[in-house]
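Q: I have two molecules that I believe assemble together. Could you output structure tokens for the complex as a whole instead of separate predictions?
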Amino acid sequence: GQNIDQPTEMTATEGAIVQINCTYQTSGFNGLFWYQQHAGEAPTFLSYNVLDGLEEKGRFSSFLSRSKGYSYLLLKELQMKDSASYLCAVRAGGGNKLTFGTGTQLKVEL
Amino acid sequence: ETGVTQTPRHLVMGMTNKKSLKCEQHLGHNAMYWYKQSAKKPLELMFVYSLEERVENNSVPSRFSPECPNSSHLFLHLHTLQPEDSALYLCASSHGSALNEQFFGPGTRLTVL
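A: Yes, here they are, computed for all two components at once.
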């Protein structure tokens, strides 16, 4: 089976930087995804990592270390609209089945 | 319509009712998924359809019955549900390739009385 851990809640200040960590244990690792989900809305895709290293996309970056089973999502220049749940999901094997963590509820304050 | 749409957005049903959830994708994808999202729990994959064939059934009780009549439509038929089945049911779609992300619909908030 797979096990994915991420913090339940985090709070950060507008304009600051926040790092949301995700650790996983799985066999046949084949990629890690980050999704953002605002309350009452659909999860939306943020990033995808399959090789070690950092992927940058505007204010959001995602890092992966396959040997450590570890990823983080980095959000810069935080805005109030970034308050949402951030879901870490791991794909294993040859198909497109994703296993999700419980999500990290981020609250951005003034 | 664009993206992935789901109807109804909210549904309240009794344990003896039969209802269906509908999902439609307008993205030209060939794989579709049903997920269950309960409070404080991870998104749980229920079913996967690829090219209109069911390729994954994650030990879901038979009171949930999926149907995929074509690559753009996915249904979840519900009957004799239990109160613990109350949750947000999310539909997603993707290209069949393993390298593509899944696009989610807004979900159906289901309450079973």
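A: One point stands out. Residues 48 and 54 of chain B are 6 Å apart (CA to CA).
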